[in-house]
C-alpha cells in the first residue's frame, strides 16, 4: 500500500475546497485585454485587478488565520467559499472600473480564507513524514482549479466576454461550497479548537523565533518573480499577433499543468533528491523558463515553458509550505496564513515591479533579472532552511517527534 493511499479520506473534501477556490484565482488573466478595452484603461492598469486580489488575500491572512484557530477551520472555509462565489457574480454585473475593483477585493477575502486553512487542516491530519505528499494532494485540487479557471475563462471569454467568465465561475463556486459543506458534516477532522488570544500571542512569538521563518521571505520573492508575470502573458501574446483569449488561457493553464506534474512526481522525487535538491532543481527550472519566455517564442513553446515553470515552481514552493507548517503546532493555521500573506504580498508587488521594469528597461531584461533572483533563491533556501521540530510540539502529545 502506498503512502498516498493511506492518507485520511477528509483530504478529498479539503481538495474539493481548494479546487473551488482556485477556479477564480487566474480567471481574469486571459481576458484582461478585453477588460482594459471595455473600461478604456491600459493593460498595466487592468493588471491592478490581479494585484488587488493578491493584496487583499495577503492582508486578510493574519485575521483569517487567527479566526480559523479560534472558531474552526472547516466552518471558515465554507463561509469564505460562499463569499468568493457572490463576489464573482457581483464582478460580472460591474458597470465601472471601481465596482469591478471592489468585487476583486471581496474575492480576495473569500479566496484568502480557503487555501491557507486547507493547508493547516491537511497538516493537522497528517504527520511530518507524509505531509509533503498530503500537501501535494491538496495542491492537486488547487492546480486543477487554476488549470480549468485559466483555460475555461479564455474559452468562455471568446463567446460570452469577461462578464460571462465571472458569472459562470461564481455559480460554480457557490455550488462547490454547498458540496464542501455537506462533505464536512460527515468528515472526521480534528478536535474542537481550544485556542485563545493568549495562546495566539504565544504562537506568533513561537513562529518568529524559529530560524526557518526565512521561508516567508522566500515565498514573497517567489510570488514577485513568478506569479507577478501572469497578468502580462496575454499582452505578450498580443504583441506576437496572437489575439485569441482561448490561446492566452491555454498558455497560462500550462503553469497549472506543471503543478499537476509536481503532485504526481513528488512522492518519487523527494526520496531521491531530498528537500534541498527539490528547492535547487525547482528554482533552476523556473529560472530557465523565465529566460525562455523572455525570448518571445510562439504560443505553443510558451505553453511548454509554462508547464516546466509550474513543475519547478511547486518543487520549491511545496518544500516552503512544509517548512511553514512546522513553524508552530498550536498556531499552525496562523503560521500558514502568514505564509500566504507573504506569498500574496509578493503577487501584489510583482505585477507592479514587472510593469515598471518592462516600461523602463524592456521585457527581456526584466524577465532575465527575475530569472537570476529565483535561481539564487533556490540555493539560499537550501543553505538556510533545516527541518526541525516546532518549539511548541512538546505541548501536543499527539505530535510525533
Notes on the structure:
- The chain has 401 residues and is mainly alpha-helical.
- The chain has helices spanning 10-22, 32-39, 43-46, 48-59, 61-71, 73-92, 97-112, 115-125, 128-185, 197-209, 214-225, 233-239, 245-294, 299-325, 332-360, 363-384.
- Helix 6 (73-92) packs antiparallel against helix 7 (97-112).
- The longest helix is centred in the middle third of the chain and has 58 residues, at 128-185.
- The protein is globular and about 55 Å long.
- 57% of the residues are buried.
Content-based structural category = mainly alpha
Strand content: under 5%
Q: What is the average of the pLDDT values?
A: 81
- How would you describe the shape? globular
The SSE order reads: HHHHHHHHHHHHHHHH
What is Rg? 20 Å
Helix content: over 70%
Number of strands: 0
Low-confidence segments, given as residue ranges, are 1-5, 395-401
Major sheet, described briefly?
none
Q: Give the termini distance in whole angstroms.
A: 24 Å
Count of DSSP-assigned helices: 16
Keywords summarizing the entry:
single chain; 78% helix; 0% strand; disordered C terminus; mainly alpha; 401 residues
Amino acid at each position: 500500500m502506498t503512502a498516498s493511499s493511506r492518507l485520511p479520506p477528509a483530504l478529498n473534501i479539503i481538495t474539493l475546497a481548494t479546487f473551488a477556490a482556485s477556479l477564480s484565482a487566474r480567471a481574469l488573466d486571459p481576458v484582461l485585454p478585453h477588460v482594459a478595452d471595455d473600461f478604456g484603461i491600459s493593460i498595466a492598469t487592468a493588471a491592478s485587478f490581479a494585484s488587488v486580489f493578491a493584496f487583499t488575500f495577503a492582508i486578510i491572512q493574519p485575521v483569517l488565520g487567527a479566526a480559523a484557530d479560534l472558531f474552526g477551520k472547516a466552518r471558515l472555509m465554507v463561509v469564505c467559499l460562499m463569499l468568493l462565489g457572490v463576489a464573482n457574480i457581483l464582478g460580472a454585473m460591474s458597470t465601472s472600473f471601481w465596482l469591478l475593483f471592489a468585487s476583486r477585493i471581496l474575492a480576495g477575502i473569500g479566496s484568502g480564507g480557503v487555501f491557507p486553512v486547507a493547508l493547516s487542516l491537511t497538516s493537522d491530519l497528517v504527520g511530518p513524514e507524509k505531509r509533503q505528499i498530503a500537501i501535494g494532494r491538496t495542491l492537486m485540487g488547487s492546480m486543477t482549479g487554476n488549470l480549468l479557471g485559466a483555460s475555461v475563462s479564455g474559452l468562455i471569454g471568446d463567446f460570452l466576454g469577461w462578464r460571462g467568465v465571472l458569472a459562470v465561475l461564481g455559480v460554480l463556486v457557490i455550488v462547490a461550497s454547498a458540496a464542501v459543506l455537506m462533505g464536512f458534516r460527515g468528515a472526521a477532522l480534528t478536535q474542537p479548537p481550544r485556542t485563545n488570544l493568549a495562546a495566539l500571542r504565544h504562537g506568533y512569538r513561537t513562529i518568529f523565533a524559529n530560524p526557518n521563518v526565512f521561508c516567508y521571505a522566500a515565498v514573497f520573492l517567489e510570488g514577485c518573480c513568478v506569479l507577478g508575470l501572469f497578468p502580462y502573458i496575454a499582452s505578450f501574446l498580443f504583441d506576437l499577433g496572437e489575439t485569441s483569449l482561448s490561446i492566452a488561457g491555454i498558455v497560462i493553464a500550462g503553469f497549472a499543468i506543471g503543478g499537476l506534474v509536481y503532485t504526481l512526481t513528488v512522492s518519487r522525487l523527494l526520496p531521491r533528491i531530498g528537500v534541498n535538491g527539490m528547492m535547487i532543481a525547482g528554482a533552476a527550472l523556473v529560472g530557465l523558463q523565465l529566460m525562455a519566455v523572455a525570448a518571445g517564442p510562439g504560443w505553443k513553446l510558451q505553453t511548454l515553458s509554462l508547464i516546466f515553470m509550474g513543475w519547478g515552481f511547486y518543487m520549491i514552493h511545496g518544500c516552503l509550505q512544509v517548512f511553514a507548517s512546522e513553524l508552530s503546532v498550536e498556531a499552525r493555521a496562523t503560521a500558514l496564513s502568514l505564509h500566504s500573506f507573504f506569498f500574496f504580498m509578493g503577487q501584489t508587488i510583482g505585477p507592479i515591479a514587472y510593469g515598471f521594469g518592462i516600461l523602463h528597461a524592456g521585457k527581456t531584461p526584466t524577465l532575465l533579472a527575475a530569472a537570476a533572483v529565483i535561481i539564487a533563491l533556490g540555493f539560499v533556501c537550501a543553505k538556510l532552511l533545516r527541518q526541525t521540530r516546532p518549539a511548541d510540539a512538546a505541548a501536543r502529545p499527539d505530535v510525533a517527534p
